[in-house]
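A.,

Following up on our hallway conversation. Structure tokens first:
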């Protein structure tokens, strides 16, 4: 199935969630997914069970299963479209602030996939410019930092964020790019423009 078709296949459940919120007791489902996530670090069977759950009509099951798979960077071609769909639907339905927690989950999970997160690059870009939620912008910057080595566009955007008008965003971007982890990832000892 093509990436766009996979995003569309998850959109129906997401739109339903925005219309009628789930009212069932979710605790037992969440506990099961949490247990599967812990097992998935050493069990392909657990990973495959989580993969099946991302196709659930229940938004909680879908999202937490996808998030769980991101910890082992499993099945990016199938899991990342779940996050892409959520990012698109929340923005198009103008529910960004209302869905802040879910969106942070999406952006954080995308970041875990590192270079494979290129699949969602354009969806992440939207969260830098189309809304004012600073927390989400910081999560989007973190996600872009994981693909900056393989994407000139995301690298450029990351550099621009170091000159953002908002001090929190500007300082976060600079600190991220000055970090030893980021310099090691980019195979650079320093970024001279950050000293200006």
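Then the amino acids I'd put at each of the 196 positions:
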């Amino acid at each position: 199935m093509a990436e766009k078709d996979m995003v569309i296949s998850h959109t129906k459940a997401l739109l339903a969630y925005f219309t009628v919120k789930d009212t069932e007791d979710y605790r037992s489902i969440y506990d099961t997914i949490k247990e599967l996530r812990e097992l998935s670090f050493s069990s392909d069977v657990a990973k495959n069970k989580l993969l099946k759950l991302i196709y659930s009509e229940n938004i909680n099951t879908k999202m937490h299963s996808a998030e769980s798979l991101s910890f082992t960077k499993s099945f990016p071609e199938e899991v990342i479209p779940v996050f892409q769909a959520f990012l698109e639907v929340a923005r198009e339905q103008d529910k960004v602030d209302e869905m802040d927690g879910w969106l942070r989950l999406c952006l954080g999970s995308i970041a875990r996939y590192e270079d494979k997160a290129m699949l969602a690059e354009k969806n992440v870009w939207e969260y830098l410019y189309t809304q004012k939620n600073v927390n989400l912008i910081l999560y989007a910057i973190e996600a872009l930092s994981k693909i900056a080595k393989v994407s000139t566009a995301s690298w450029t955007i990351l550099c621009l964020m170091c000159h953002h008008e908002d001090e929190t965003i500007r300082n976060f971007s600079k600190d991220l790019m000055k970090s030893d982890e980021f310099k090691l990832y980019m195979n650079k000892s320093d970024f001279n423009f950050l000293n200006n």
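The chain has one domain: 3-195. Curious whether your intuition agrees with the design.

B.
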